Amino acid sequence: MLSRRHLLAAIVAVLVAGEPAAAQERLKVLATFSILGDLVKNVGGDRVEVAALVGPDSDAHVYAPSPADARKIADAKVVVTNGLGFEGWMSRLVRASGSKAPIIVATNGITVRKAAGARGDADPHAWQSAANVKVYVANIRDALTAADPAGRELFQANAAAYIAKLDGLDAEIKSAVAAIPVDRRRIISGHDAFGYFQEAYGIEFIAPQGVSTEAEPSARDVARIITQIRQLKIPAVFLENVSDPRLMQRVAQETGARIGGKLYSDALTSNKGDAPTYLDLMRHNARELIAALAH
To answer: Are residues 130 and 155 in the same domain?
Structure first.
């Protein structure tokens, strides 16, 4: 017969063994911006505590890190970045933090697109293709597994389930775009953030700004865009949640093109917005584009 003390100890041991990961100390992961944060949550589930430096509806291109951000990096066990020059401020911030946490580059392994323009820099907006995000997810899965080997099975299962959702999303967008005549698949966007979407799904994006919202378009750039809209009879221009809308409004006034709606390029929205998750972001953008091009 077990004594009362031994029986109590056995019950406690069983309860602790069955304790969900959420109640244990979770792996602290810091993502550089909201889209990456969402991907980490989907892979990590209850075993991770995720924060993003650049939050919803905020522009990582022009982000100015604070001392508090250095402390967040110092506290993290894993840091997930996009890479490809997207977070130009990141190396300085890591040095300031003194962090020894692994810095994961989620774009490792993708086929990098060169941005339009004379410099031909790498285009960092690789998440605009669902196929690329499968690579992001695999890199995140492997990083979380290395940091928390006990979570391997959960991370693998979550990643596989999310990759299946990405395959469905990819097929869904391709099928919807296929219904639009090829000669109508052109739109104007605020900055050159949709090159990977263009390559993956066949809608041509023309932008007066480069790949960064820091770059101010010249008068010549704006005039060129206006001429293209008129010559090609482009039906719609689109605003973005991270860009100043005044430029697009001016282009629309000059050409008579409709403002087709708002696209989400570099950031998610809050939970009350149209794009609180990556899957929501891609579906929202596809619906807006197809609705504008179908008329």
So the answer is: yes
- How far apart CA 214 and CA 234 sit, in angstroms, is 26
Domain boundary at 113, 140, 171, which?
Answer: 171
Question: For each of the chain's 295 residues, which pLDDT tens digit applies?
Answer: 445 555 444 444 444 444 444 446 899 999 999 999 999 999 999 999 999 999 998 888 788 889 999 999 999 999 999 999 999 899 899 999 999 999 999 999 999 998 766 466 899 999 999 999 999 999 999 999 999 999 999 999 999 999 999 999 999 999 999 999 998 898 877 667 899 999 999 998 877 644 344 456 667 767 777 787 788 777 777 765 445 567 677 777 777 777 777 888 899 999 999 999 999 999 999 999 998 888 7
pTM to 2 decimals?
0.82
Tokens describing residue 234: 């482009």
Same domain, 68 and 104: yes
Which amino acid type is present at position 24? Q
In degrees, to the nearest 5, what angle opens at C-alpha 240 toward C-alphas 234 and 244?
105
> Which residues lie below 8 Å from residue 126, measured CB to CB, with a gap of 6+?
82, 84, 107, 110, 112, 113, 132, 136, 196
56: which 2 tokens? 């919803």
Find the CATH number of the domain harbouring 284: 3.40.50.1980
Strands (E), the chain: 27-33, 48-54, 78-81, 103-105, 186-188, 204-206, 236-240, 258-263
144 with 155: CB under 8 angstroms? Answer: yes
